[in-house]
User: Which sequence fits this backbone?
């Protein structure tokens, strides 16, 4: 069975090589090496998304807490908070069940927050973010 799979794979690679030009003339990017160009594009995209995410977070917080406090809140975000949001985003984009789990969790948290009084929610959220801005645990 494995021989058949290896044979099919070898044929597929041979077909792909036959259809792919060997020349890198006109290859977009700063170098002639496509792997290097792909790596540079990946770094640029990740850096851009990081900057966009920080700008959006700061914009959301700036209206309520002011520019300096918003910067401090973002700067003092814990490693656990960052890893949790990264992990949830990865889970949500990998497959439909992951998206359902993350989306369902977000809906459940929203419904839980709505059951509490608005004043209590605001007070609790303000307290957590101000503590984060001042670097208190």
Assistant:
């Amino acid at each position: 069975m494995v021989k058949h799979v290896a044979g099919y794979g070898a044929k597929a690679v041979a077909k792909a090589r036959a259809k792919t030009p060997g020349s890198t003339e006109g290859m977009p990017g700063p170098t002639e090496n496509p792997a290097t160009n792909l790596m540079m594009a990946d770094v640029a995209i990740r850096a851009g998304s990081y900057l966009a995410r920080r700008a959006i977070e700061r914009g959301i917080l700036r209206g309520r807490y002011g520019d300096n406090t918003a910067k401090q809140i973002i700067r003092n975000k814990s490693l656990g908070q960052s890893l949790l949001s990264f992990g949830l985003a990865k889970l949500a984009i990998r497959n439909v069940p992951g998206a359902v789990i993350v989306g369902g969790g977000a809906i459940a948290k929203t419904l839980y927050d709505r059951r509490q009084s608005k004043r209590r929610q605001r007070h609790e959220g303000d307290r957590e973010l101000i503590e984060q801005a001042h670097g208190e645990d």
